[in-house]
Every structure is written in structure tokens, then in C-alpha cells.
Amino acid sequence: MTSLPKDPVDVIVVGSGAAGSNMAARLAEGGKRVLILEAGPARGPGHLISSTLYARRVKWTGPPVLDEGKNPVGFVFNSAYGTGGAAMHHYAVWPRMHPEDFNMRSQHDRGLDWPLTYTDLATYYDVVQQEAGVSGDATKEIWRPVGAPYPMPAVPVFPQGNAIARGFTKLGKTVAPLPLAVTTTNYNGRPTCLWDGWCDSGCPIGALANPLTVHLPRAASAGALLVNDAPVTKILTSDDGTRAVGVEVALKDGTRQTVNAKLVVLAAFAVENPRLLLASATPKHPQGLGNSGGFVGRYIMTHAAGLVYGLFAEDTRPYMGAFGGQLVNQDSYPKTTHTKSGAFGSYQWMIAQAVKPNDLLGISTTRPDLFGTALQDFMKRATRGFAGMTAVCEDLPVADNRVTLTDQRDAHGVPIARVTHTTHDESVALWKASLAEGKEVMQAAGAKEVWTGPPGSMHIMGGTVMGTGASNSVTNTYGQVHDIPNLVVAGPGLFPTSAGVNPTFTVHALAARSAQQLLASWEQLAG
Amino acid sequence: MTPAQARASDVPFRALDTGTVAVLDALGETLLPGSAAAGLAHYIDHQLSGDPADSMLMIKYLGVPAPFADFYRVGLHAADALARAVHGKAFAEISKEQAVGLVTKMAGGQIEGWQGPPVELFYFVLRSDAVDVVYGTKAGFEQLGVPYMAHIEPPSRWGE
Known about the structure:
The complex is a heterodimer. Chain A is built from eleven helices and 18 strands. Chain A is of the alpha/beta class. Chain A has one domain (9-526): FAD/NAD(P)-binding domain (3-Layer(bba) Sandwich), CATH 3.50.50.60. In chain A, strands 1, 2, 5, 6, 7, 8, 17 and 18 form an eight-stranded mixed sheet that branches. In chain A, strands 4, 9, 10, 11, 12, 15 and 16 form a seven-stranded antiparallel sheet that branches. In chain A, a hairpin with a 2-residue loop joins strand 17 (480-481) and strand 18 (484-489). In chain A, helix 1 packs parallel to helix 6 (215-221). Chain B has helices at residues 3-8, 18-31, 40-49, 69-87, 96-108, 119-135, 138-144. Chain B starts with a helix and ends in a 16-residue tail after the last helix. The mean pLDDT of chain B is 94.
């Protein structure tokens, strides 16, 4: 293990995923001495073995998380433990949120308002898509909010995509290339993607914009130090409770070491961030840090996956492409599109995802009812003609969907987290509406067989939501904890609503905006 | 050594006992023919014997806390008990048709008196394991005519 510094640093970033690596790079480039503490093991491209089985090793193996409620968030699958965090194996589907995602409470009396607007984020989306590299066709995405065109041409469409696109077109709906943070040209020294569908195992060639490829090298070049196997057990605050002064880290020999810093950035994902805030309670913050309003841990969200499958007569070559898909449709983005069926919220289709024979998202798992010779027959047929698409269904924020601490403790004595999540009725109805539409599309496309899957959980958001004050949230728009301005939360935990798109692009845009503000106000912040 | 080679060489089990392995082989063959010869039992045994952090079992995605050995042991005993209760014989000794009948009930999730983990989950986990050993490897992909297209090839001995 790289040694922890004995002297104070300017910034400690807890976590090396999308948010942490982005913040670390920017703050280090801004001249700050940055220490990144990663609880999990060191991982480099050489660890990213092309195998659905080996991919399971890079998922969460940290302290247990009790994953409960009627619709658990699927913590292990949706997170990771090690360098690059969950973004190391994310599928790089990078659509922008829409303006209407930011004011749902005002407009529709549902969920929460964000304390910022799309306009506040637009330029940061532009900056991040340039540095990470996003492929797409802005003109064909008729639903896309205002923004700079993509820096790389659109991803290719393979037979699976063409087959499903037929159905959308026949029904008068639109498809466009899926915006992916995956290379379609050589980009900043990174090679073009080979479209072999191994994204879930982690991309070792640098085609997919994960932290190992984009922001961690930048952070390192600017002098940031990354220390692995360094779980933070406590955020330390000043005696008067107004400032973060550092963190306590558990060392492998069982001892603890304190590292002091002028700024602490919590970027340990949507469950570990509130866990640490709650577990760092002091007499000045008896309910946990940032929790004077009682919002730490609340409004945990996860997208229900509207999984729709079809079997076609043609060879769809479903193993080709990216794991995230080839095409997108956002016709169902307006929040009230499906209100007649009791639904509320947005969804988008990710169309024609590359699939492997096995695994949670593999072909075999789409028909869990089949076994024996029926399963063998299905696998042979489906390998030729399978096609699938996934609706990313907005999950309304519910205060009681939350992270709490349990009486059980991890190996370092920190209480382990329980995540409870039960989907709002209107979000369940939205998921059902997506399945109904999806089946119609597959039938129109000419599928011989059409079937659907269960509402799997994609992405985890909320838990440390941003807002206008401690009476409604945990942080401000920059992720600064209301009561402790030099304690900053980064990541999808800040989202007050989940939107109907994948979160990682917005995580990056928020992080870029936050880092800029932190650097601009450094003198005041550092005290 | 691959799981199939481990089976062919009769490598001793570490986490599972002989009786449990017999149930696992029979159940695996019912779920996906060829899985026993592909080394299903040795694969699971190997994964259960190591550090849970290194486990490659599908069960880690499904909200079951590690370690996973008891899930398998108790589930396999329950399947065996089910065969004995319904057919008066061990699961490894019932006919193919009888095994298919019992697995159909397991998949449906409704078995009175089942003494194991949630039966539908147990079915899903075992079925996923069988699919992993048969189709989740380079050889399995080839069998289906799917190009493997590895960036980094998995080692032939799983778990290294």
C-alpha cells in the first residue's frame, strides 16, 4: 500500500469513481495538493479480464450493505470496490438531463425541485463531453436539450439495432444514435472501440471513458496521490462543528491514521456517503454530519429497467456493439406522457444492447423459466435472432426510501448500512407503461416472439440531495454540506430527482461545476 | 485446470461433501444438460472455498450476504429432501422425468414444506451457475457460435 501522507493536504477526496476522479483532477490542476483515498484495491487495465465471470470480481466487495424493501437497489451489481469505482464498469450511456427534470415539484407537484436549472449545467456538459469524448449525432436526437454537438461521430448500428429500429419507425417514432462516452475515432490517444460488448467487465483499451482512462491519469499528472485499501472510517470535524478537518483511515494492521485537510470531498457513492456522514456524528452534530434537517440518507432512488425482448428470423448478431446499446428513443420523456395509465415521469429507451450468453443481463437470464432441453434450444435460437432494449424509468423520490445505520458493524467498527427502497406507485405504473410500449415496438418490428423481464434496478441516486437549505436538503448546488461548507459531497447522491436518463454524465457535469466553485472560493473555504 | 478437468481428474472437494455433490450433479443436469461434465460442482466448490471477495458466483448480485456456502448446502439438502418426500428416493436416484417435475415446481416457487433458501431464488442461482459453466466460457461461446472477442483472455483455470 502506498503510504498515507503524515502532513496535512489541501484536499482529501474519498472515492476514486466518476465524481471523485473528476474532482481530484480539477482540484489538483488548480494547484491543490490532493489525496484520493480509495477503500478498495488497486485496479488497472490489466485487471479488466474479458469475462462475465471475472466481471463479478470488480463489483462491490466492501462492508456488507443490507439491500431491502420491496424493490431493492441492487447495491452489489450497481456499485464497485476498487480504483475507478462503479464508473470503472459503467456502460457509458451519456445523455443529458432535460430542463424539465430540474423543476418537477414546481411544475407537477411531484418529487423535488433541483436548486439549479439545466442552463446552469449546460456549459459543464459541454466541457465534460469534450474531455471524456462522447459519440453521437446531436441533430438526430430531436429531444436533446441545447448543447454543443458531440466531439465524435455516432456509434455504428448493427443488425440488432436495425431490427428494433424498424418497429419504432413503423409506429411513427424516432430513433437516434445512442450518445456513448465510447470512442468512434482515435480520441486524445485513445483507440477506437472494437464493439465487442465487454463494457461490463471494464474496458481495458481506453475506448470507454472510465476513470482509469480519463480523470485519474489527469489527477496523477497534476500531482494527486491515490492510495488504495484505505477505507475512511470517520470524517473529522472541528470542536465547534463548523469545519471538516480531515478523516480517519483504517490501516491494514488494524490501527487508524488521521489525515488532515482543508477540504474533504465525499465521493464514495450514494450509499457510503450518507453512511459516513451518519457514522461521523459528534456532540455538535448528534444526528450525523449535515443532518440537522434529517435529510441524510433520504430520497434514495434507482431506475426501474423496462426490459423488452424479441426473437427475430434474421441473424441479429446481438453480441456486437456496446453494452449500453446502439440507439436511443426519448419520445416518452415529457413527464405526463403516460398519466392515463396512472404513471408519472420520464423514460428513454436504450436500444440494442450487446449481450453475452450468460450473466445477469445475458440472453439466458431473459427466460429464467426455461431449463433443460428447452433452455438449450432457446440458447441456440436466441444467439441468432435475439434483440433487446431497456427503458430507463424515472423513480420518484420518496423520503422513506433511505440509507440508515444498523446495529451491525464492519471489520473496522463502523455501523453497516441498510438501504430500503420501495418504488412509488406512479413509477411502477411508468415501468408497466414502458413494457406495453416496448412490446408494441417489438411486434411492429416483426419479432416472432416478444417477452419482458422483471424491473431490475439500474443506478443509485439520492441520499444526500442538494437543495436550498438545511430545511429541505443536505447540500447546496456545489455539494457543500449546509452546516459545514468545507465538507463537499459529489456524485449521484446529490440528485433530488432521478430523471429518465443515465446519471454519469450529470455526475461529471456537477463535479466540474463544483470544482470550479471550490477553486474560486478557496481562500474563504480553506480558512 | 478447468472445472471440467477438475471433475475428470476427481479433484477432492473442499466446501461440499460427497452427498451434496451428488444432488448438485443431478440438479445441474436437469437445469442444463452437460453442466455436470462441465464441472459445475467443482466450479461452485472452488468459488466457495476462496475469499468471498474473489467469488465469481452470480449469487453475489442477488442480495445474499457472503459467505455463500450455507446457501448452497442448505438448498441442496432441501432439494434432496424434496425428492425423498415426493418420490421416496434421493434426488440423484430419481428418473429424469421426476427430476424435471420437481425442478418445474422449484421454478414456480411454491413448494410446501421446503426447508431451504427461498426456492425460486435457489433455482435461479443454480440455473445461473449451470449456464455459467456451460455457456460462460470461451468454449461455451464457441458452442453457440458467438465470437468471444476478448481484450484480455480469462485464465483457463477459473479463479486464478
